[in-house]
TrEMBL record:
Binding site for heme: 154
Top-level taxon: Eukaryota
The organism of origin for this protein: Ixodes scapularis
Membrane topology of the entry: Peripheral membrane protein
UniProt EC number: 1.14.14.1
Cell compartment(s), UniProt: Endoplasmic reticulum membrane; Microsome membrane
SUPFAM superfamilies listed in its UniProt record: Cytochrome P450
Lineage: Eukaryota, Metazoa, Ecdysozoa, Arthropoda, Chelicerata
Official protein name in the record: Cytochrome P450, putative
């Protein structure tokens, strides 16, 4: 790869992540403001880490189990890519009696799948505990794809998770988020 191509690809990764990470942050902040009990539990976890380590690091931010659950549930509730994941069928395929010919474009509706009651108990309820270590194994792997799936999934998913984790942890450590009672007065 040429130096120009390397820089162009790096720039593409950074720019591509701006909109999705900012959307995920906004949606997570909204959900935390709406669910004070979740926010309080998350704040307690973050404060314990800060008392122990004094600051956030790449390693310790990923040790925050409840934060991981909040981000996972927020990503399920409001996927950063709310549209479809698109793939091309590379060979003739049959699934549940349906024949999918080679070269057919297949659309996977992420938002619909993340809210499908066949895969999620009370799918319209914000519940970070569904991603707890005890419950995570009950999740159908193909029913939760916030960063896409397979070899063409988001190459910057780990960076996005780190950015989300760090900003959310720093936010709840310093601020208490609330919904605005009279949003029309904000303008």
């Amino acid at each position: 790869m040429t130096p120009f191509a390397t820089v162009a690809n790096a720039e593409l990764f950074m720019i591509s992540g701006l909109e999705t990470v900012s959307s995920a942050l906004s949606f997570t902040a909204h959900l935390l403001a709406k669910h004070q009990d979740v926010q309080d539990k998350l704040r307690a976890e973050v404060k314990l880490l800060l008392e122990k380590d004094g600051n956030f690091s790449y390693d310790n931010i990923f040790s925050l189990q409840y934060l991981k659950q909040v981000i996972a549930e927020s990503s399920r509730f409001y996927p950063a890519q709310p549209g479809n994941v698109t793939r091309r069928c590379v060979k003739d395929f049959e699934f549940n009696g349906f024949r999918i010919p080679k070269d057919t474009h297949v659309l996977v509706p992420v938002h619909l799948m993340h809210h499908d009651p066949r895969y999620w108990v009370e799918p319209e309820k914000f519940n970070p505990d569904r991603f707890s270590p005890e419950n995570k194994s009950t999740i159908e792997p193909m029913a939760y794809i916030p960063f896409g799936i397979g070899t063409r999934n988001c190459p910057a998913s780990r960076l996005a998770e780190f950015e989300l984790s760090l900003v959310i942890a720093k936010t709840v450590a310093k601020f208490k988020l609330h919904l605005c009672d009279e949003p029309e007065k904000l303008c």
